[in-house]
Amino acid sequence: MTVVAVTGKGGTGKTILSALLIHFISQRTTSVLAVDADPDSNLPDALGVAELVEKTLGDIREVFQVSRDEMGSTNKEQWLEGKIYGEAICECDTFDLIVMGRPEGEGCYCYANNLLRGVLRRLMRHYDYIIIDSEAGLEHFSRKTIDSADYIIVVTDMSKKGLATAKRIKELSEELDLGFKDIFLVGNRIANKEAEDVIRRFADEIGMKVLDFLPYDETIAELDLRGEPVINLPETSEYYQKAKKIADMIVELHAESVTK
C-alpha cells in the first residue's frame, strides 16, 4: 500500500494534480482509493464523477453523532464500518472514492472522529494506492489527520504565501515527527525558466526535492468554465504529460516498496 497526500496553499492547483494522478494510476490498476479530504469537495468534479457521490463521511458522522446514545450495546465501530462500506464508498469504473465532507458542527466529535480514523485505516489496507486531495493549509498536519501517508506532494505557485505554506509544511512534518518517507515539491503554473530557478533555490534552502514544474494551461481554465473534468485534458498537453510522469514516479515508488 502506498499513500500519497497532495497538499499546499489553497488555490495552487492541488486538486487538479490529485485528479490527474488518480486518473493515470487507475489506468494501470483498479486498486486505487481516492480520498477527497478538502471541505470544498472539488475532487469529484475534477474526476467527472460528482453525480455518483451520494453520501460523505461527514453525513455519516452527523447521523452517528445524533443516534449513538440510542444504539445501546451495538458495536459502534462496526456500525460505522457498515455505513462507510454501504453508503460512503463511491465505486467508480477504475477507482473507489470517499469524500470526507464538511467540518463537524457544534459539539465534540472526538469520539466519532477517532472511530472513523480506525475504520479508514482498515479500509485503506485493501488498496495498493491511496491518493488524498488534502485540505488546504496546515491544520491537517497539526491534527495528524494524514499521518498514515507515505509521501507528501506539496503544490505551490510563485506566490509568497504558497512558498511560505510549503516551508511550514516541511517544518511541521519534522516537528511532529510524522515519519513520511519523503516530501516533494511541485511548482504549478510556472511560466518560465527564471521562475523555475527561484523555486529550485527555495527547495534547496528548505531541503525539499522538486518533482517537476507544471505550466499554465489555458485548456484547464476552459474545461472548468464548461463544467468538464480536468481529466479531459488533451494528451498532447504539456501539463498532461508532466502530470503523467509524476504518476509514473509514484508507481515506481510503490513497486520498490513491494519488492523490499
Automatic annotation (TrEMBL):
What are the TM regions of this chain, as residue ranges? none
Q: CobQ/CobB/MinD/ParA nucleotide binding domain spans which residues?
A: 4-230
Task: Name one cellular component (GO) term.
Answer: cytoplasmic side of plasma membrane
**What Gene Ontology molecular-function terms does this entry list?**
ATP binding; ATP hydrolysis activity
A Pfam family reported for this protein in Swiss-Prot or TrEMBL: CbiA
SUPFAM superfamilies with a match to the protein in the record: P-loop containing nucleoside triphosphate hydrolases
Q: What does the entry give for GO biological process?
A: negative regulation of cell division
Q: Which named protein is this?
A: CO dehydrogenase maturation factor
Tell me the organism.
Answer: Geoglobus ahangari
